[in-house]
Model the fold of this input.
Amino acid sequence: MTPHRELFTRHADNPIITAADLPYAANTVFNAGATIRDGETLLLMRVEDRRGLSHLTAARSADGIGGWRIDPSPTLLPDPAAHPEETWGIEDPRVTFLEGEGRWIVAYTAYSSVGPLVALAGTRDFQRFERLGPVLPPENKDAALFPVRFGGRWALIHRPVTGGFGAHMWLSFSPDLAHWGDHRVLIEARDGAWWDARKIGLSTPPLETERGWLVLYHGVRTTASGSLYRLGLALLDLEDPGRVLRRSSEWLFSPAEPYERSGDVGNVVFPCGWTRADDEIRLYYGAADTSLGLATARLSELLDWLDEDGQGRSRHSV
Done:
């Protein structure tokens, strides 16, 4: 068996953002979408207030590591009066830039008494947002948009929960970002003792590479002491995102440091955003639902590892 090698390197200053860094009182900050805007790294962070409800706040940095300039008040608050699906908060944003339209689409989880569902919002400046409304009914979350159309249609990865049949990653299509259909299973959770058995979900938005769309996803394993969140990779066909080319058999990133092991929800690494500069990947992840961490990797090494470790299309990658 090939010796294990770490592909992601945690930054020495982790966690890079905590609730103490916010300019207003909050319980925790975690699970941030990420993008590059005007040459800066922009994180759209999930912030949980001291009631337990979440909103989104933007942070900007020239180097993507430190010197974060955090909005002085929440950037995007829930709007229960106009959007009752947000009564219990908005969570876990994934940010996708649509180059042809000059705007970003934020896929986020809206939470209320009817359960979590997928909603979209558009923005050109991360100050004003146009809500596109709920696009998929509950229970559903872990959604992100591809940055290009396929055959004239937008594509969205998401994770519905289907009762006692597990939680798998699905793919849906839309001509207008409002009406979604052609729903299909993309990647199934495995069975039995696998690290990604029974429950999986998209982590970061799909990343276009010369070999295919690179997908980072999380697997949730239930243990005697609770859930354990780990990360794996898959590769989708560039022209047909419903075709899974490779899927890792092993996880490649897992809770290890004290700030990932202990927090409001321990044993969790949960990325919602990554950025790319040439061959460098920067992964921004929630640590124990309490703070934000940064880990870096080489894209070429991730793809090579997936070639070595990955399994081809199977009944677990439908």
